[in-house]
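Thread title: Can someone regenerate the structure for this chain?

I was given the following input by a collaborator and told the matching structure tokens would be attached. They weren't. Posting the sequence so someone can regenerate them.
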Amino acid sequence: MKEKFILLAGPCVIESELMTLNLAEKLRRIVEKSPIDFYFKASFDKANRTSIDSYRGPGLEKGIRILERVKKDYGVKIVTDIHEPCQADVVKDICDIIQIPAFLCRQTDLLVAAAKTGRIINVKKAQFLAPWDMKNVIHKIEKLENKNIILCERGTSFGYNTLVVDMTSIVEMKKFGYPVIFDGTHSVQKPGGNGVSTSGNREYVPYLSKAAIAVGADGLFLETHEEPEKALSDGANMIPVKDIESLIEQCLRLKEC
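Best answer:
Regenerated them for you:
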């Protein structure tokens, strides 16, 4: 029996409780039609924004409370990212997956704290790492006797303000024996492309996402919003929630091939 398609999807950051709940409801309605292992994703704090003046989120305490309500009201599993080791113990009772941001994937204390929770750890491969270098990241988590690991490809730095995706990275990381998913939205970022914020090319998300599934990715990470142009973070590379269902349907067909 084939494993279910893994989908981590939601807004880049919690903008408000109402916005988060509405988006969670729409995503749940979309995924309940298909054999998908779905996790609602939203960040309580974007600690790595380009500018100090950029919106970061509601913070840990309020953010976790909102995610807890999403889980209770809609019966969906939750994933959020952490930036400091002390946050792992706070989020573990609400989150089914703890996500490690790409820039922090080599931070031993962060990985150890996340691994100790026993939760699934989704580690984004850093833009500066080769896929085979992720073996050292995996080893740090496994040393804590946690083998609940997902690896995530999200593009590689190519010169200034540009990312490229080498699809063979997915093939290489699957050799470690853990699920590998593809971050379709961050892979089309142009880091710092607007000077004080990140820009991106959301029109490429469907093409890269389908290519990733075709080469063997086990699922997708997608940031989405009802109106990406008005999003408070990463709007340029998020896709409208109305387009999610069609993309997932196409990817599910590819996964069956």
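The radius of gyration is 17 Å.
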